[in-house]
Amino acid sequence: MDCWGGFSINHYGGIVIGQGAHIGENFNIRHNTTIGHVNGKNPTIGNNVTLGADVDIIGGITIGDDAMVGAGAVVVKDVAPHEIVAGNPAKVIGYTKGHPQI
């Protein structure tokens, strides 16, 4: 796992992060979350990303800078910078500060 500064775990427990994951700065994660590989493809998580509890990110998924993933989300496709996603499968429900549409 590659991880830069500012890694924060809130409500520790049941967190799985695969060894090939790439994680940017100021990453915030909560319990019961899996970030794992599939067929040699690993997730890439940008800077200033927040994940709620019970999130699954598996395979070659990219989570862009300043994105947020809601509790219980199953991320099956890339999340663009500043997107807020939630659900199973995860869908865009809003945008974080700094997004051009705000």
Automatic annotation (TrEMBL):
MF terms in GO: serine O-acetyltransferase activity
The keyword Transferase is assigned to this record: yes
Entry GO terms, CC: cytoplasm
PROSITE patterns reported in the protein's UniProt record: HEXAPEP_TRANSFERASES (PS00101)
Entry superkingdom: Bacteria
Key words, A-Z: Repeat, Transferase
Keyword RNA-binding found: no
Any one GO BP annotation for this protein: cysteine biosynthetic process from serine
Stated name of the protein: Serine acetyltransferase
Organism from which the protein derives: Lactobacillus porci
